[in-house]
UniProtKB/TrEMBL annotation:
Biological source species: Pseudomonas aeruginosa
Domain DUF5983, chain residue ranges per copy: 5-68
Pfam families in the cross-refs: DUF5983
Top-level taxon of origin: Bacteria
Keywords of this entry: Plasmid
Protein name: DUF5983 domain-containing protein
Length: 70
């Protein structure tokens, strides 16, 4: 959904580019999809809240869902 609609969502700031997207994740509403909550939890665990880059050219993170952007 974010790859298709980008920043047109009720949850977070999203900037889409050719190979992925940047997400600004801090506070998320309860209605956000589980995959975004999982990313936020991982970021929080690693003291990295704020901007995160999701890129299909980079390695995956164990425990987080992997999706094909196309």
């Amino acid at each position: 959904m974010l790859a298709k609609h980008g920043d047109d969502n009720d949850w977070l700031v999203c900037a889409v580019y050719q190979d992925g997207m940047f997400l600004y994740i801090e506070d998320l509403p309860e209605t956000v999809p589980q995959a975004l909550r999982d990313i936020r939890h991982w970021l929080n665990t690693h003291n990295r809240l704020g901007w995160v880059r999701l890129d299909e050219q980079f390695d995956t993170v164990e425990g987080l869902a992997v999706y094909d952007q196309s």
